[in-house]
Protein 1
Amino acid sequence: MNFSTWFGFFAASWAISLSPGAGAIAAMSSGLNHGFKRGYFTTFGLVLGILTQVLLVGIGLGALIASSSLAFTLVKWLGVVYLVWLGIQQWRAPVTPLQATASEEPRLPRRRMVLRGWLVNAVNPKGTVFMLAIVPQFLDLQASLPQQYLLIAATLCCTDLVVMAGYTALAARLLTALRSSRQIKLMNRSFGGLFIVAGALLATFRRGA
């Protein structure tokens, strides 16, 4: 992959990362609930999910998921159920002001936040189909494919680390402005609703979309 081709993919990767989706909602939800430093662990999981998607596409499983109705449907509905479950959990999250939890142990361990982020991106056939549509356009079939996939994965991960840091920080800043239980309850239900909407949108996604 020459520099001009890579630079084109680099520009596309920013658009991919910046576009609102389940990953952005997960990053903002973590920033809202845990602040920036702890909430950013969800982003590490999101990046691992991206690596999983690139690996699936690279070894051909992505094509299988995209072409098999059964495999696609199973993965899609697993993703839908997970996003809706996240929405319900966020909707029902305890209404506790930041000042009351500042000295307490955070509710969600870091490893669970990483796992949560990974599942959001990994169990998403829409992401697989998107990768299958976009990535091959930037590949040089005469050059080493593993090296190009590594470069593509590194590029996507770097841009996502930066963009999701922005989403997490934005939500964390909002967290410090919340003062009343009513405000916190409203934000929890807003983000819970966004997760459920993301799940509903994924449910309508088709292989040919």
Protein 2
Amino acid sequence: MVDPKLLRDINFFSDLNDDDLNVISKVLIEKEFKIGTTVFKEGEDGQSLYIIKRGEVKACKSTPEGELLTLMLHKDGDIFGEMSFLDGRPRSATIVAISDTKAYMLEKNDFEGLVDNHPRLIYKMLKNIVFSIHSIVRGMNTRYIEMINYMWGRRR
């Protein structure tokens, strides 16, 4: 069990009340990753969501030659692993700690176990996951348009 008071300062949990934090703290598992540690690899099975308390990780895709290309960085308060957490499919990227990182892990089974007794908490957390994904997609769309404009010499 994680101390619920420690969750108060994490953006992902900012809209949860004290009762919500007490409930979710019972199913979170604290994990630490040293710099250079691979948290999980692209293609692996996994149904856990990670919320970064402190540190930084990079999400990478493998090239056919086996080189890792960085897609994005996640830092304090960010989440990762949300895609497999939601759809149950294999991991879509490799996650590597680029600093000593402390994160909270939430297993899908534990999360789903809260649905019947704490539906409002589940709603709030799903909303936060969607907002996080939405932010990533918006950023990717912006970078895509910038790349197209650069390649074709167009201006916005």
Protein 3
Amino acid sequence: MMTTAAPILAVDNVHVIYGQSILALRGITLRVNEGSIVALLGANGAGKTTTLKAISSLVRAERGRVAQGEIRFRGDIITHADAAGLVRRGIVQVLEGRRCFAHLTVEQNIVAGGYAHRPSRRVLADDLDRVYTWFPRLKQRRRTAAGLNSGGEQQMIAIGRALMTRPKLMLLDEPSMGLAPMLVEEIFEIIRNLNRREGVSFLLAEQNTGFALRYADHAYVVENGQVSAHGTAADLAARTDMASLYLGAIATD
């Protein structure tokens, strides 16, 4: 549901450099409106992950930096903000590949996300119950080591852990990676329901353009660190030139 409200996220002419010389982003500009789902599409190495990490400030952990441009969250400049501080302000990133703590239980993985706000024991329990409402399968497996769960369940764990931070904006990097189509659809249905019922806005980098464009409101195509096209998801899905030039390549990302 695309809204007419001011954007929750505004990225303007952002350039990202790794080390001293590798230019990964070359003037990325995009908007995420409050209460919307926005897809970031592009071939492998196009700059999708770097865009998400520039927003969450995780790019700094990889010797990267925003060398030019500006990022705003709800009107406030966050271009060089502390990553942990951004989580407390409502921006959380779910990294590519789930990144679960394999030897910890499902519940221990989920609860780990809740400590960002230093909650009381009662608040932590309430937030955990909320996650289990969205992911009843995880409640059944809460005492199981996370590494023993399927890829789809591990993706649910990662999203559940992110929900424990009470996000306003969730950045998802390749949520469908390595999952069977049935599980991908389940994950995207959960994303849409979280968006509609909880009001969480989403910016997701995705290789499965069919699902991304079906569930997103708006989409941006990234090529060589730049936005090469953007529009409503429906309009991009209908463009045959986009399918031949970009989207076909993304499908094998």
